[in-house]
Each structure stands twice: as structure tokens, then as C-alpha cells.
Amino acid sequence: MMKIGKDCGITQDEVTKFVGDLQAECLGAKNAHSPSSDRMGILLGDNKVYAQMLWTSTQKVRGREFCSFINQALREDNQDYLQDLVPVVRAINSLCVGRSQGTWPSGGICFRGGALPDKHLSFFTPGKKYRVPGFLAT
Fold it and tell me: DSSP assignment, residue 96?
């Protein structure tokens, strides 16, 4: 988080507080602030629940949630950023990708509200498959 934070103009103190707030939220602990952003990997351990909590956290630094930093690192394919975020990305991915039978939801169709500029509507057609360089919320 320190590397991507610095490149986004976020101070080390802001990143440290942000990471601490995320840790405190996930662990439910007081005074979880840590000067080391690489403790995020330690926080995760083998527990995928923490990764899900990090991904869905509403904690913000300079108006951005943790999930936006993950997707920025993935979009940019920046090794410096990804080195620190891989434990989180791997844990989130393990929750999304599995060898299950059948599809979920029923029929493999998910209906979700949202907004999309009209100029992009023609791209999305029934049956179209596309890949996104990051996690796509559904």
C-alpha cells in the first residue's frame, strides 16, 4: 500500500492510518495501526474472510476504498504494487473461482442495477463475453 499510496500522492502517515483502520475493522481490534503496510499479508494468513472484508470495506483514504487500489494495481500490471497486494488478490480470487458443479445464480444470469453512458450500451449484447483486468463487482 505504501508504494501505490506514494505514487497517488498520499502521505505515509495517511497510508499507515488507512491500513491500520482496515486492520482494526477486520480484526475488530483497538490500536491495530501499524507503521508497516506489509503486515497486510500477515493479517490475511490463510483466512479468506479477511480478504473479503478488505475488499468490501468502506474505509477510505483521500476518497478511495481499498478495492480501488487493488484494481488500479491490476489494471496497470505494476509489479511494485502487486508484490504487496498479491496475498489479498489471491485470497479474493480463491473465493471467486472454484470447481463447482452448475452455475450460480440459476441459469448463470445476474441482474444488477447501475449506470452506463449511452455511448457504451451497444458493446453489451446478450451472450457477449469479455475480460476485465481486475475484479469486477456484480
Answer: H
127 three-class SS: coil
pTM attached to this predicted model: 0.69
Cis before 105? omega within 30: yes
Q: Give the cell for residue 49.
A: 474472510
Burial class (CB in 10 A: 0-12, 13-18, 19+), 84: middle
- pLDDT (tens, 9 = 90+) of the chain, 138 residues, equals 899 999 999 999 999 999 999 988 887 743 444 444 444 555 555 567 788 888 888 999 999 999 999 999 999 999 998 888 888 888 888 877 665 656 666 776 767 667 778 998 899 888 888 888 888 765
> 75 has which bridge partners?
none
Q: What are phi and psi of 90, to 5 degrees?
A: -65, -45
Residue 115 identity (one-letter amino acid): A
Question: Exposed/middle/buried for 8, CB within 10 Å: 0-12, 13-18, 19+?
Answer: middle
